[in-house]
Design brief:
The chain is mainly alpha-helical and 252 residues long. Helices cover 39% and strands 8% of the residues. It has helices at 2-9, 34-49, 57-75, 81-94, 185-195, 200-220, 240-248, and strands at 105-108, 111-118, 121-128. A hairpin with a 2-residue loop joins strand 1 (105-108) and strand 2.
C-alpha cells in the first residue's frame, strides 16, 4: 500500500526515484541517498549502545533489531558500488582536502555531502538542498528573514574563523566528489519489504528517533535500579499469564 502511494505521487514509474519528489505521504519527500544515511544512523546507534552494560535488556533488544536492519540495508548494493568504493577510497587518500570545510561537507549537484567517521569507517551522508518554490509553498506571513542582533553563538561562528584563511586544496585543481551510486526503485522496494517499516523515508525517520531515544536512555541510566522499589505485586496484573486469563474472563 505504501509503495502504491509513492507510485501514485509520481507522474510515471521510473527506474530511479527522483530526490525531493513527493512520496505520497504529506510532508515527506524522497530521500536523495537513503542507503548511506541508514548505514550511518544504524552504526551510530550501535556505537551509542556499546556504552550500556552488556546486561542491559534495552541494549540487547535494540542491538538485535538494529543489526538485523543494518544487514538488510548493507546487503542491497547499487550497480557499480564496488568500483565507486575503490575510487572514493583513492580520492580520499590522495585528496583529503575534498571535505575541507569546518562542517566536513562538500557541495555537489544541488546537494551537500557530509563526511562522518564511526568505528574507523567513513560514511558520506547526502542531504538535498531544498529550494523555496513560491508556486508550491505557502507564504507564512513573514515579510522577510529576521536578522539577529548581538554576538553570535559559537555554533553560528563555527565556520567564520576559516573564511579569511587559506584552506587545504586551494592551490590545486578543483576535485569533484561523486556520490554513492543510487539504488533503483526496485532495490528500495526490496529493503522496504524486508524491514516492514513503511517507505524507506519512514524507516530513516524511525532510525533517527531510535538514535535519539538511545541517547536519552543512556543519560537516564535505565539499567540502574529504581530509587523507589516497587511494592510486592505491583506489576503482577501486567504479567502475560494474568493478562491472558483476564481476556478469557466472562464480560459482565
Amino acid at each position: 500500500m505504501r509503495r502504491t502511494l509513492r507510485q501514485l505521487a509520481a507522474a510515471k514509474p521510473a527506474r530511479y526515484l527522483e530526490a525531493g519528489a513527493p512520496t505520497g505521504l504529506t510532508g515527506l519527500f524522497t530521500h536523495p541517498a537513503p542507503r548511506p544515511a541508514l548505514l550511518y544512523i544504524y552504526s551510530t546507534t550501535l556505537e551509542k549502545l556499546r556504552q550500556y552494560p552488556e546486561s542491559s535488556l534495552y541494549r540487547q533488544s535494540t542491538e538485535a533489531i538494529t543489526n538485523h536492519r543494518l544487514s538488510i540495508v548493507s546487503s542491497v548494493e547499487p550497480e557499480g558500488y564496488a568500483q565507486w568504493v575503490e575510487k572514493a577510497k583513492k580520492l580520499l587518500e590522495e585528496h583529503p582536502e575534498v571535505f575541507h570545510t569546518p562542517e566536513g561537507e562538500v557541495e555537489h549537484d544541488g546537494g551537500r555531502h557530509i563526511k562522518h567517521t564511526k568505528d574507523g569507517k567513513t560514511f558520506i551522508v547526502s542531504k538535498l538542498d531544498v529550494e523555496y518554490d513560491d508556486t508550491r509553498d505557502e507564504w507564512d506571513g513573514e515579510e522577510g528573514v529576521e536578522e539577529l542582533e548581538g554576538t553570535r553563538s559559537t555554533e553560528d561562528r563555527k565556520g567564520q574563523s576559516v573564511l579569511g584563511k587559506k584552506r587545504p586544496g586551494q592551490d590545486i585543481k578543483q576535485i569533484t566528489w561523486e556520490p554513492e551510486p543510487r539504488l533503483t526503485a526496485d532495490q528500495i522496494g526490496e529493503i522496504e519489504n524486508k524491514i516492514g517499516g513503511g517507505l524507506i523515508e519512514e524507516v530513516i525517520q524511525t532510525a533517527e528517533a531510535e538514535l535519539k531515544l538511545a541517547d536519552l536512555m543512556l543519560q537516564a541510566k535505565v539499567w540502574e535500579d529504581l530509587e523507589e522499589k516497587p511494592v510486592d505485586g505491583q506489576w503482577t496484573y501486567f504479567e502475560r499469564n494474568n493478562l491472558a486469563k483476564d481476556s478469557t474472563a466472562p464480560q459482565k
